[in-house]
Structures are given as C-alpha cells and as structure tokens.
C-alpha cells in the first residue's frame, strides 16, 4: 500500500487503467520502496506536472523523486539505481 506523502521516497503518477502502472506499483512494493500514488485523471494539477516532465505527453507511470527529477515508465532497476546512495 502507498505511504503518505511525507514518508514516500517517490511520487508515482498513474491512471486507473494503466497496466504499466499496476506492474510498477507491484515491483515497488516487492522492493520495499515507499511511494505516494496520484491519479492524474482525478487530479488535473498532477496531469500538468506529468505533461511538463514528458514534453507535453501524459505518460504514466511517471515517478517524481525528492530532488524534483522524474523518470517515465522506468524499470524497477532504474528506480533502484536512482534511489541508491552514490
């Protein structure tokens, strides 16, 4: 289950019908990565964030990290690499 925004490592922008979103949520949960989920169809302001991150496209899943960077439709390996300390 998604964590509250204050403790989440990433914000996960999704839609209810997105199969890639379902897969990524499952992978995040298996890896123990906390996320805060936002449905862009229910929150128009979130859709604006996603469009800005994707050159105008409403691509989901899009993840936003604490530093403001984003990854669109990433693999779990890409997410893990981004979250691992350097």
Structure description:
This protein has a single domain, classed as Glutaredoxin (3-Layer(aba) Sandwich). With 86 residues, it is an alpha+beta fold. It is 36% helix and 20% strand. The termini are far apart. Mean pLDDT is 91; it is low at 1-5. The chain is globular, with a radius of gyration of 12 Å. It has a 4-stranded mixed beta sheet, with helices on both faces.
What is the topological layout?
Elements: E1 10-14, H1 19-31, E2 35-39, H2 44-53, E3 62-65, E4 70-72, H3 76-83
Parallel strand pairs: 1-2
Antiparallel strand pairs: 1-3, 3-4
Summarize, please.
With 86 residues, the chain is α+β, with helices and mostly antiparallel strands.
Sheet with most strands: 4 strands, mixed
- The residue fraction in helices comes out at 25-40%
Strand coverage percent? 15-25%
Provide the low-confidence segments as ranges. 1-5
Output the CATH homologous superfamily: Glutaredoxin
CATH first level: which class? Answer: Alpha Beta
Number of domains: 1
Arithmetic mean of pLDDT: 91
What structural class is derived from the secondary structure elements?
alpha+beta
As a whole number of angstroms, the C-alpha radius of gyration is: 12 Å
Total strands: the figure is 4
Keywords for this entry:
single chain, 86 residues, alpha+beta, Glutaredoxin, globular
């Amino acid at each position: 289950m998604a964590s509250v925004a204050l403790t989440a490592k990433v914000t996960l922008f999704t839609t209810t019908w997105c199969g890639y979103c379902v897969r990524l949520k499952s992978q995040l949960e298996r890896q123990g990565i906390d996320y805060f989920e936002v449905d862009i169809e229910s929150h128009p302001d979130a859709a604006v964030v996603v469009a800005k991150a994707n050159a105008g496209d409403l691509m989901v899943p899009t993840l936003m990290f604490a530093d403001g960077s984003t990854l669109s439709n990433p693999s779990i390996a890409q997410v893990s690499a981004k979250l691992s300390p350097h």
